[in-house]
Amino acid sequence: MALRSRPRNTRLVVISLVMMSLLTITLDYRGGQSGPFEVAGRATVAVVGALQNGVSKVVRPIGAFFSGIAHVASLQSENNKLKRQVADLQRRTAERVSLERENQRLLALAHLEQTLQLHGVTATVIGESVGNFEWSITINRGSSSGVKVDTPVVTGNGLVGHVIEVTPTTSKVQLIIDPSSAVAARLSSSGETGLLTGQRGKDLTMDLISVGAKVFPNEPVVTSGYQGGLYPPDIPVGFVSHVYQAPNDLTKLISVRPAVDFSSLEFVLVVTGGSSG
Fold it and tell me: Which of 20, 139, 196, 226 is the 20 to 30 A CA-CA neighbour of 42?
């Protein structure tokens, strides 16, 4: 009996579903836009729209993030390009400053050469020796350029020293700040003469100045140009920085600040001709 009743129950279920479907369609059709399915549909659309808006707000930053990642390589390349441009500008600026400094020193050298009527060859400093026993430089001119031992050497600012060794292409120059250097010099105002000796990295010392000599602060000191001496006259040597005098001394001792900056020598003039003392 149970088996016989199963087909009947199935038919009843199918018929019931069909009737409910027809009823629902009829109600929705008669209800128009206010029908239950239409209302449910609009509600569903509203819910889905809200969900889409929320999802968009969440996804949009993520999309922007991945888009930014895609441009990282391009930005890095642009950054590297800008760095290269800055480095190139810095290099050009440094070269321009160096050329301007070189030009100024060469002009000063030419001015001193013309003023003192000196003749010689321009040389470049290619080495230096600074120590307790010797203060000297090496230049790129030698006997093939007319350089000889005891030839004076100057810059645009003043006296550097004299040549002590010569090869065909190079020369060694003893600086006036070397302890074994001695320069016959005079005070430009009074004309008092004395002997300048080197003190390494300190100011030069000028002695044998008479007690009665008037010495002024920052007074220029120049070469005296004795007959047969190493140096032509009137080459700037330095400026008076201090005067010492003991009560019972018959002479004054003067400190002289060099006119030449020996820490930055680049170009020098080796004096091969001109008036000499």
Answer: 20
36-73: buried (b, 16+ CB within 10 Å) or exposed (e) per residue? Answer: eeeeeeeeeeeeeeeeeeeeeeeeeeeeeeeeeeeeee
CA distances from 111 to 77, 218, 219, 271 (A): 51, 22, 21, 14
Instruction: Report the helix count and the strand count for the chain, using DSSP H and E.
Output: 2, 12
Q: Is 217 left (phi over 0), alpha (psi -120 to 50) or beta?
A: beta
Nearest to 126, CA basis, from 173, 73, 61: 173
Here the tokens at position 65 are 């993030």
Q: Give the closest residue to 201 by CA, choosing from 277, 262, 127.
A: 262
DSSP-derived 3-state class of residue 134: coil
Query: Distance between CA atoms of 241 and 218, rounded to whole angstroms?
Result: 6
Whole-model pTM?
A: 0.63
CATH superfamily of 121-274: Rod shape-determining protein MreC, domain 1 (2.40.10.340)
Which pLDDT tens digit goes with each residue over 14-51? 566 556 655 555 555 555 555 555 555 555 445 445 54
